[in-house]
From TrEMBL:
<dbReference type="Pfam" id="PF16313">
    <property type="entry name" value="DUF4953"/>
</dbReference>
<protein>
    <recommendedName>
        <fullName>Metallopeptidase</fullName>
    </recommendedName>
</protein>
<feature type="compositionally biased region" description="Pro residues">
    <location>
        <begin position="28"/>
        <end position="49"/>
    </location>
</feature>
<feature type="region of interest" description="Disordered">
    <location>
        <begin position="28"/>
        <end position="61"/>
    </location>
</feature>
<feature type="domain" description="EcxA zinc-binding">
    <location>
        <begin position="479"/>
        <end position="802"/>
    </location>
</feature>
<keyword id="KW-0732">Signal</keyword>
<dbReference type="InterPro" id="IPR034032">
    <property type="entry name" value="Zn_MMP-like_bac"/>
</dbReference>
<dbReference type="InterPro" id="IPR024079">
    <property type="entry name" value="MetalloPept_cat_dom_sf"/>
</dbReference>
<dbReference type="InterPro" id="IPR033413">
    <property type="entry name" value="DUF5117"/>
</dbReference>
<feature type="domain" description="DUF5117">
    <location>
        <begin position="117"/>
        <end position="310"/>
    </location>
</feature>
<dbReference type="GO" id="GO:0008237">
    <property type="term" value="F:metallopeptidase activity"/>
</dbReference>
<feature type="signal peptide">
    <location>
        <begin position="1"/>
        <end position="19"/>
    </location>
</feature>
<dbReference type="InterPro" id="IPR032534">
    <property type="entry name" value="EcxA_zinc-bd"/>
</dbReference>
<dbReference type="Pfam" id="PF17148">
    <property type="entry name" value="DUF5117"/>
</dbReference>
Length: 886
């Protein structure tokens, strides 16, 4: 899927899954703020006022600088006069760390640049150098933990980073021992957003300070917040590869709104909790160099909110401070109940470990003048964009302990305006999931930034609604369809809230559900369709004539309860290690299987080797699911072709249904191809079980998957469409994003190419050649690399043995196969074993002879003859070519 250039949250403290910030006390309907801020007008900043009186340092007295300014007293007191803003920094705060975060309030609305997004965060500090104040990001990735000599070495060996710098503009206040700094340095690109803009549009947009300005500001005892509006511009639109914005009135200029948060770190750090790889939590990680006795100096602390019982002796107690999620006033009213239900569903998991009402939901009033992106409010916000289709559940945490301090879920509007209009075009066939951009940091490699669950759920929802509508079982405007959409929103919110509670994806949870139970409506309605809401769960659509279970998840799964227990269960300090070990040891239970993004593949360059770890599958047999989805796609196509469009119908509906089916076929091909050379992986710690970490997939299952690809994906018979249907698919004549007729061969080739890449990859070849090492005496039954290469070649080039015509869909597939074979024969591939290359040449020689015989058949069409002769020439040239082998 295409990955738009999302503003990558590469900062140390930002996590997703996509306080104790617990927002105002439960009794307060809304936070109390300092005097209401005034909006600052746009325009150039005036020159600084001339110095009047000065002290020995050459600086004006504090009171002279702020004469006529309005204060907002708080963590860092703000002084504001017209468009000028000063930060008051006490001497006691010099070099004292705090949490700095920069969130995106408003943006461009396309290509990853969206509103309502959590941004970068750092542990930062103010450092005074003469009459200059530096804003410094502290390096907390390496620690000496009390070893004084090592801590000196670390300070010398690993640098901090400068985020910004500004003049000190006043002498020290005689009583408060504080100085004023000009806040205009915040009207700069501290967040690095300009790099994301350039990556999105391939244009050198410059930050324009003169037309950037402060909007609003707030301050309280633990936080200071400034909203700023930044202007980016370019003088002209160059030619070449530039792709300017399409959503702005003038592509040369746009504004982006940022929310700066200066937040006090907890005075008493929360007791950290060590992570365990047998289940998935986001972590704050650092390198502990205090001793050289550790073989692995990396330490991972679970990210979790600080929850403490009011009554520690009670079996069930409310927390001292609950986790409060504010529903932003920009959430459409019709969806607020579903959003709230998705949040509160997690209270079931907390009740099981002794917390009553651990999570509270509050609605931001429509007349509120504060922003839910400030660091006091964990929030859920709606956002729109021309190409936006994902939800995110990031959070900011205290790296000393892993304590989550703030979280802001952003939810795309794909459900309200419907994915039906979002996935119309043929580009949906080649588009990848919207950015599941994974922010990386040298000290924390498990920080997954964006979550594409909303995007894919919208596509899944579309497929199910389209199929049910084609069957005549559901009307798109019916109450049942509305209830369906509401359930999808609840499911998506449950997933994103899980991220903000510290839980990572679990892409093996769907296999915890027995396939036969998916058709049990009562069971699935009560228990959901998967072992976790943290999986990317497909919709449970039955084949026509089968029993229909619940369509999607409506509640938490066993894994979710387990993961919350590990992170949040109150445990006495001296018993924590043993108790956490006991909890994690349950990983052998079938309902608690776990696999993360790396295991599923498509992340960090890892292709994924476990066919049970997938995005969007259902049941304990993903291969059976893949075959079922292929059949459902073919059913949708058949019903669409036999239907008669009505005058009032959407003219693009049939075109969209064709594309919707191809998305599902693409997923079926991906699932099936993972079985070839697949290895089932289990997460156990040494000495805890006798299970194997890696177990080769059953050879019978691998052969079954290979045949599904050969007969279902590589066969032209799977993609037959009536000419009168294809010729009746108009483009959008008013918005010409799709031009001309649909190209079915191109759509088919996109599906087949991905499967070819997988089967001919170096990873699959290596694992198949290594299989005998894992099987011992059973090695004779193993599927061999030669069997895979031979089966693939026979399926792709079957016409050359039968001397029959080759249609365009098949010619395209054969060219793609030949292109890869020729490339491997002449250039090799990184990591491809020598035995794989030998087998490739062996099979290529046989194909060369088949092509030579088939090319001599003058009874074939001129297109087929030309194709065969061209293929023969290309392959013969490759076999004659010399290649330097390393």
């Amino acid at each position: 899927m295409r990955r738009p250039a999302i503003w990558g949250l590469s900062a140390l403290l930002t996590l997703s899954g996509c306080a104790t910030i617990v927002t105002p006390p439960a009794a307060a309907p809304a936070p109390v703020h300092p005097p209401a801020p005034t909006d600052a007008p746009a325009g150039p900043r005036p020159a600084p006022a001339p110095l009047s009186r000065t002290d020995s340092s050459g600086l004006r007295p504090f009171t002279d600088v702020v004469r006529g300014a309005t204060p907002s007293e708080g963590y860092f007191t703000l002084w504001r006069k017209d468009e000028r803003v000063w930060l008051e920094v006490p001497e006691a705060q010099f070099d004292k760390p705090f949490l700095l975060s920069i969130n995106v309030h408003s943006s461009v609305g396309e290509r990853g640049l969206y509103a309502s997004q959590m941004g970068n965060s750092w542990v930062a500090a103010f450092r005074r150098i003469g009459n200059q104040m530096q804003l410094v990001a502290r390096n907390v990735g390496f620690r000496g933990d009390g070893n004084v000599a090592i801590e000196r070495a670390l300070a010398q060996g690993f640098s901090d980073s400068l985020l910004g710098s500004t003049p000190v503009v006043s002498a020290e206040h005689p009583e408060r021992k504080s100085v004023l700094v000009d806040a205009s340095f915040l009207l700069g690109d501290i967040s690095g957003y300009s790099s994301q803009i350039e990556a999105a549009f391939r244009l050198p947009y410059s930050f324009d300070r003169n037309n950037s300005f402060f909007e609003r500001s707030w301050a309280s005892d633990g936080m200071t917040t400034l909203n700023v509006r930044m202007h980016f511009s370019t003088p002209r639109m160059p030619g070449g590869g530039a792709t300017p914005p399409t959503t702005t009135p003038d592509p040369r200029s746009f504004f982006v709104g940022f929310v700066y948060n200066f937040m006090r770190l907890p005075e008493e750090p929360m007791r950290p909790r060590r992570a365990d790889p047998r289940l998935g939590h986001f972590t704050d990680a650092y390198t502990d160099l205090s001793t050289d006795l550790k073989s692995n100096p990396r330490v991972h602390h679970v990210n979790r909110w600080r929850l403490e019982k009011k009554d520690p002796a009670a079996a069930l107690s409310e927390p001292k401070a609950p986790i409060v999620f504010w529903l932003d006033k920009n959430i459409p009213t019709r969806y607020r109940a579903a959003v709230e239900a998705g949040v509160l569903e997690w209270n079931k998991a907390f009740e099981r470990i002794g917390f009553l009402n651990a999570i509270v939901v509050r609605q931001q009033p429509d007349n509120a003048d504060w922003d839910t992106l400030d660091s006091r409010h964990a929030s859920i916000r709606w956002y729109v964009g021309a190409d936006a289709g994902y939800a995110r559940g990031p959070h900011h945490s205290d790296p000393r302990t892993g304590e989550i301090l703030d979280a802001d879920i952003s939810m795309a509007d794909v459900f309200s305006r419907s994915a039906r209009r979002f996935f119309i075009e043929e580009k949906a066939l080649t588009r990848e999931r919207p950015a599941e951009t994974h922010a990386t940091h040298p000290h924390s490699h498990d920080r997954h930034e964006d979550c594409s669950y909303a995007f894919e759920s919208a596509a899944e929802m579309d497929f199910v609604l389209d199929t049910l509508e084609a069957r005549g079982e559901l009307s798109p405007d019916s109450p049942e369809a509305e209830a369906f959409v509401q359930s999808v929103i609840k499911d998506t919110i449950m997933h994103e809230v899980g991220h903000t509670l510290g839980l990572k994806h679990n892409f093996k949870a769907s296999t915890a559900m027995k396939r036969e139970l998916l058709s049990d409506h009562q069971y699935t309605r009560s228990n959901g369709v998967s072992g976790s809401v943290m999986d990317y769960n497909a919709f449970n659509l039955a084949l026509k004539g089968e029993q229909q279970g619940a369509y999607n998840n409506s509640t938490l799964g066993p894994y979710d309860y387990w993961a919350i227990e590990y992170a949040y269960k109150p445990v006495v300090a001296d018993q924590e290690s043993a108790e956490l070990g006991r909890i994690a040891a349950r990983s052998t239970e079938p309902a608690l299987v776990y696999a993360d993004d790396y295991d599923a593949g498509g992340f960090g360059g890892f292709e994924g080797i476990d066919p049970l770890a997938n995005r969007f599958d259902l049941g304990d047999d993903p291969l059976a699911y893949a075959e079922k989805r292929l059949k459902l796609s073919q059913e949708l196509w058949q019903r669409t072709q036999s239907g008669v469009p009505q005058y009032e119908d959407d003219p693009l509906r049939q075109r969209r249904l064709l594309m919707t089916g191809f998305r599902q076929v693409n997923r079926s091909a991906e699932l099936a191809s993972k079985y070839i050379g697949g290895m089932v992986q289990l997460r156990d710690l040494p000495g805890t079980t006798k299970r194997r970490t890696y177990t080769p997939v059953d050879p019978a299952k691998q052969r079954q998957a290979l045949q599904l690809l050969a007969r279902g994906i590589f066969s032209a018979d799977s993609f037959r469409f009536r000419p009168e249907f294809l010729s009746s698919l108009p483009p959008d004549y008013l918005d010409r994003e799709s031009v001309g007729p649909v190209s079915v061969p191109n759509a088919v080739l996109n599906v087949q190419s991905a499967a070819l890449d997988r089967l001919l990859s170096a990873g699959v070849a290596t694992r198949l050649l290594d299989l005998p090492n894992y099987l011992g005496a059973a090695a004779k039954q193993a599927i061999s690399l030669q069997e895979v290469y031979r089966t693939l070649q026979e399926a792709v080039w079957s016409e050359t043995r039968q001397n029959t015509e080759i249609d365009r869909v098949r010619r395209n597939l054969q060219r793609e196969h030949l292109k890869r074979v020729v490339g491997l024969l002449t250039r090799g591939a990184a990591g491809l074993p020598a035995d794989a290359l030998s087998l490739m040449r062996f099979n290529a020689v046989q194909l060369q002879e088949q092509l030579r015989q088939a090319a001599g058949n003058r009874n074939l069409s001129v297109e087929t003859q030309a194709h065969l002769q061209d293929s023969l020439a290309m392959l013969s040239e490759a076999l004659r070519a010399s290649m330097s082998r390393g």
